[in-house]
Amino acid sequence: MKTISSSKVIYSFTYDMEPVETVSPGEVFKVETNDCFYQQIEREDQIITEIDYDRINPATGPIYVEGAEPGDILKIKILDIAVAGKGVSGTVPNEGALGDQVTRPTIRIINIEDGYAVLEGIKVPIEPMIGVIGVAPKEEDGKLPTEMPWKHGGNMDTKDIKKGSTLYLPVYQKGALLALGDCHAAMGDGEICFTGLEIPAVVTLEVDLIKGKTIEWPLVETDEYTAVIASGNTLDEALYLAASEAVKHLKNGLNLTWEDAYILAGLAVDMKISQVVDPKKTVRAAIPKQIIATERIIESL
Ligand code: CA
Ligand code: CA
């Protein structure tokens, strides 16, 4: 099985990135990821504001997917996320939802014990997830730093991007050029404190292609729902974009009028806050599979 080394990283998604490895549809492979600080934080007495901020949010890759062409969808099955034995979280003044209340930077090195992250004796069950995962963007989108969530994926910080889920990303460039990093052992919806439990990981993936179909925004499929992941300059804007796309999927997938699709969304679609701490905010619209199967949404694109 191919393993892509965590020494091969990018800090921006660009349309003309140079791939470091090639995989084929149906191939299972491993990707080693760094934590979002590139492991620069090792002790609680370090000053979080004094690390090298040019090495924040490394994403391993890019990985060229054989046969991927603009106008396809890249289907990424997340088979496993094996995290390290400890991770790091912290507060940074003026960062996070309550950044104005942060009077001093604080670092916590948090051990993982028997499937729990342990903070001050309090046990939090881990649920590893991928914070940054994306493909080469459209040329007109320019250079998208890995901290940015957008239509190509990127820093979506969405806790549903976890083991057992399937992520669907639009392909804009030949080979798709997939890269990922910034895994969290645990994170609450919103990621309010600026960090999740930042941790190196080894991610096992299987990629496939859906030819000749495209999506405006990424989709993540869990056991229960298919969620549209949209990002905007404000939470309101992100919510509007996610809701619009979800209603479109309901309308097309179930052959409803737009009005009935909108009413159905009001009854059944959960709007969830993915993150509020990145340059754009991310909201997902979760469409229950009981209402419509993911395959049906894809077929109707
Ligand atoms: Ca992140
Ligand atoms: Ca992170």
How would you describe this structure to a colleague?
Strands 1-5-18-7-16-19-20-22-21 form a 9-stranded mixed β-sheet. Strands 2, 4, 6, 12, 14, 15 and 17 form a 7-stranded mixed β-sheet that branches. It has a 4-stranded antiparallel β-sheet with strand order 8-9-10-11, with no helix packed on it. It is 12% helix and 38% strand. It has helices at residues 235-254, 258-268, 294-299; strands at residues 3-4, 9-10, 12-13, 21-23, 28-33, 59-65, 73-83, 86-91, 106-113, 116-119, 122-125, 129-134, 144-145, 149-150, 153-155, 166-170, 178-184, 201-210, 219-221, 225-232, 270-275, 281-288. Helix 1 packs across helix 2 (258-268). It is mainly beta and 301 residues long. The protein is globular and about 60 Å long. The two termini are 33 Å apart. The protein binds calcium ion (CA) (2 copies).
Main traits of this protein?
3 helices; mainly beta; about 300 residues; Endonuclease I-creI; binds calcium ion; 2 domains; Jelly Rolls; nine-stranded mixed sheet
Question: Topology of this structure?
Answer:
Elements: E1 3-4, E2 9-10, E3 12-13, E4 21-23, E5 28-33, E6 59-65, E7 73-83, E8 86-91, E9 106-113, E10 116-119, E11 122-125, E12 129-134, E13 144-145, E14 149-150, E15 153-155, E16 166-170, E17 178-184, E18 201-210, E19 219-221, E20 225-232, H1 235-254, H2 258-268, E21 270-275, E22 281-288, H3 294-299
Helix pairs in contact: 1-2
Bound molecules: calcium ion (CA) (2 copies).
